[in-house]
Amino acid sequence: MTQTPTQAFLNVSASLTGREWTGPSAALDREAEAMVQATGLPAAVARVLAGRGVAPQEAEAYLAPALRDLLPDPRSLKDMETAAARFLRALAKKETIAIFADYDVDGATSATLLIDWLRQMGRPATLYVPDRIDEGYGPNPPAMAELAAKHDLIICVDCGTLSHEALEAATAAEVIVLDHHLGGETLPRAVAVVNPNRQDESGDLAHLCAAAVVFLMLVEANRQLREQGTKGPDLMAMLDLVALATVADVAPLIGVNRALVRQGLRVMAARTRPGLTALADVAGMNTAPTSYHLGYLLGPRINAGGRVGKADLGARMLSTDNPAEAESIAQKLDELNKERRAIEAEVQEAAMAQAEERGLDAPLVWAAGKGWHPGVVGIVASRLKEATNRPAIVIGLDEGIGKGSGRSVSGVDLGAQVQRAAAEGLLLKGGGHKMAAGLTVEESKLEEAMARLAALLEKQGAGALGPKALTVTGLLMPGAATVDLIEQLEAAGPFGASALAPRFVLPDMGISHARRVGERHIKITARDDLGTRIDAIAFGAFDSPLGPALENHGGAKFHLAGRLEINHWGGRQSVQLRLEDAARAADHLV
């Protein structure tokens, strides 16, 4: 039960980054206090749970989500029994199987789940990942025809729901689609299309990523095997892959997704999968994995293969059982990720300049450029969205054709509108889901298509959005910010999409030390009036007035807003604030 307060939190209506701070309503404060009284939980944890709508009697179960209680019946999804039965028939008859996977983390993990399961059952599978530049997203007729000529069964993962022409080309084989992207009015020719976002589904499981759909298919396959008196592979040991996909694909961390990620992180911590172990080492992970590591360290490196390198590198690394091969591919992905970052920075600068020229307060912020690498346009669209609080689309043009990606804001369904524009003939093709979409457009129709999308998005309120507010969980005194509290807060996680990590404000803090780190970041040490100190780091602080204000503080006091984390250094643990915003305390008297 959250309500927008009538007054900005701590009266901060314009912080150093220009944002209004919004905090919990009075009603939510009362709910949090009632939870403290009923459960004995720290007030900070109670605030998080109350904000999630958790009742006091549900707190214990919420803090320890059990997969057995939350995992849906796979058969609740249409075509699931058919898909699993056909999959098992291929296994029993020793048919040749090909897996056609998307080139991102969700596709790579989905393919690996199937490859791992089949390997344990003594059967190989052919992996096919399309090249982002030469083939684009999803199945294409030449590739499907070639695979069909050499295989009995093709399984499309994280793609295929809208690929009517491509699946028609696979006449020599049967096809199963395991996907989660928004479906059209009709389904392609296939033995089974398992997708919680089919138009004839209830939508109850619309938050699942493709890897979770594949996992449910394997749950159903194992169940059918048990009915036949045979035991299938241990699926719990595969949850590291499902967790990685769920976080990296920005699936909402609600319901069963919370349990999948929590259990998957435990599996990953055991370091039994050579590919993930090698990648964690390359990424410098020296602590137990968290959802942050999946989204910001591992995910981008796996995606780098599909963005600027060889498309199948991620899936090959994840699926190999050879540690030496895993290490070699992990090193290559790390190099490609550095290359991706350099390309991304160049495109971002040009795209932002172009978007500013058109106006950043439009219902749709967009940019297009010749030679922009298609592997980074999605990331740059995400950056534009974050900077403007508007849906954003970024398009790379090549020989009269534009290929682009879009990212949306909460409450604005971009995927449906892109699909509509494609149906109207303004786009060559397009689709996705509420928060992300991909499209292909003729350069001659670019302006018309973007104008139409802007009009459609404006009807959903995209043009009326103000600067993105900074939502805070509540106040916290630095003396209460302990390692023990952070560990208790983590039990309310994992945090990510639709379940943001709690953000606290440390009020009236003086800065005793400030040091610039690199060109864009700053580290500070802050103290309250009791002398309790806390270290903080603000990444990208010098991209806004935040960095200069903290660096040249002049003895002023600040309200500091950010997320608590445990800093591991020299074998010791300490509390650190990941600082996101600040406001001069004297300017915002309560």
Task: Give a nutshell description of this structure.
InterPro entries: DDH_dom, DHH_sf, DHHA1_dom, RecJ, RecJ_OB, SSDNA_exonuclease_RecJ. With 590 residues, this protein is of the alpha/beta class. 40% of the residues lie in helices and 19% in strands.
Q: How many helices does DSSP assign?
A: 20
Strand-residue proportion: 15-25%
Summarize the biggest pleated sheet. 5 strands, parallel
The helicity comes to 40-55%
Q: So, CATH architecture of the largest domain?
A: Alpha-Beta Complex
Structural class: alpha/beta
- Per CATH, what is the topology of the largest domain? inorganic pyrophosphatase (n-terminal core)
Average pLDDT for all residues: 94
Could you tell me the radius of gyration in angstroms?
A: 24 Å
Contiguous uncertain segments of 5+ residues: 1-5
Domain DDH: 97-246
GO molecular function: 5'-3' exonuclease activity; nucleic acid binding
Coiled coil: 326-356
GO biological process, one term: DNA recombination
How would you describe this structure to a colleague?
By secondary structure, the protein is α/β, with parallel strands linked by helices. It folds into three domains: 9-32 and 472-587, OB fold (Dihydrolipoamide Acetyltransferase, E2P), CATH 2.40.50.460; 70-334, inorganic pyrophosphatase (n-terminal core) (Alpha-Beta Complex), CATH 3.90.1640.30; 359-464, Diaminopimelate Epimerase, Chain A, domain 1, CATH 3.10.310. 40% of the residues lie in helices and 19% in strands. It contains 20 helices and 18 strands. The chain has helices spanning 26-39, 43-51, 59-63, 67-70, 80-92, 105-120, 141-150, 164-168, 210-227, 239-248, 256-269, 274-282, 291-308, 313-319, 323-358, 377-388, 414-423, 446-458, 483-490, 546-551; strands spanning 21-22, 97-101, 126-128, 153-157, 174-178, 192-194, 365-370, 392-398, 401-407, 429-433, 436-442, 470-471, 474-475, 504-517, 521-527, 533-538, 557-569, 572-584. A five-stranded parallel β-sheet has the order 3-2-4-5-6, sandwiched between helices. The chain has a five-stranded mixed β-sheet with strand order 7-8-9-11-10, sandwiched between helices. Strands 14-15-16-18-17 form a five-stranded mixed barrel. Strand 15 and strand 16 (533-538) form a beta hairpin. Helix 5 (80-92) crosses helix 9 (210-227), helix 15 (323-358) crosses helix 16 and helix 17 (414-423) crosses helix 18 (446-458).
